[in-house]
Amino acid sequence: PTGYMENSISYSAIEDVQLLSWENAPKYCLQLTIPGGTVLLQAANSYLRDQWFHSLQWKKKIYKYKKVLSNPSRWEVVLKEIRTLVDMALTSPLQDDSIHQAPLEIVSKLLSENNNLTTQDHESIIVAIAPLLENNHPPPDLCEFFCKHCRERPRSMVVIEVFTPVVQRILKHNMDFGKCPRLRLFTQEYILALNELNAGMEVVKKFIHSMHGPTGQCPHPRVLPNLVAVCLAAIYSCYEEFINSRDNSPSLKEIRNGCQQQCDRKPNLPLRLLHTSPDLVSQEATLTESRLKPVIVTSSEIHVEVERNNTANQKMTANVGNDSEPNLIDCLMVSPTCSTMSIELSAQADRILGCYVEILKML
């Protein structure tokens, strides 16, 4: 570009956008009003001109809302602006994912930067953006805000009226929770919020039943795998502290923060059986004198009764005697099998465990 068009025109500098519609006006032109003059843009056809017109209007308005909502003064004004923003996104003739996602991102940033809002402010904002959530997944920061609301206000009507269709959409259309783990966390918190209602587990069961019909007739094949993933992740979280204390594996918090597994972490399972030494074989052989010999391991957290299988020990010894690598299945059979295990869980973890075990039974 040369001359007047050497420098770009910022969206913030555009004061007005109009279609040229007077008689004998140039064909397919847009008029942009900027400080110091006007700019005419001519498109190849009316369709492209209209596309430019609505796109420029959208960009101009989004810039305005970002500016207004980045420095909120009065929350009555903020709420009114959010409602206007949502209406603009819903009535826009443009068809693009960002048309609905951009307002959600603006509100998400607003909530993350203002932690001193009242519960009533929270609920008003959630209700205001609810129409955008009917066909869109909430962004990660918004998921965290929803999780916090579920934990602090599980009996709020917002949980039932607004979050239910959002969670239904997640379970029906999500393809990979690995790419969006916060959606899974939000789904877990929503189910736990349902479990806190007076009818508790009955409400949860009713919700699960409503999600999926007979497999041959239900048009949503992702519901069952997604529900199983949610349940297993929730159950794992109940035992996370215990698991980390036993096998020294990285915690979920470390994994979420991107920490690498440290070198000094060693698994608790007897992987040494994969590389058997003669001393180990002789120790295992001494156990063949009795068919079953229980070994009691006691700690402050766990009481395990371990039984070693005599037949598996013989297989292991035979393999080593032939100077061959031990079979993986044999190694697993030789490994201790826990016949009884009882772990002390906190009252909250116990409630979570009971809820998701019931869901798995239903599934």
UniProtKB/TrEMBL annotation:
Pfam families: PH_21 (PF23066). GO terms for cellular component: cytosol; nucleoplasm. It comes from the Eukaryota. Residues 1-69 form the C-Maf-inducing protein PH domain. InterPro entries: CMIP, PH_CMIP. This is C-Maf-inducing protein.
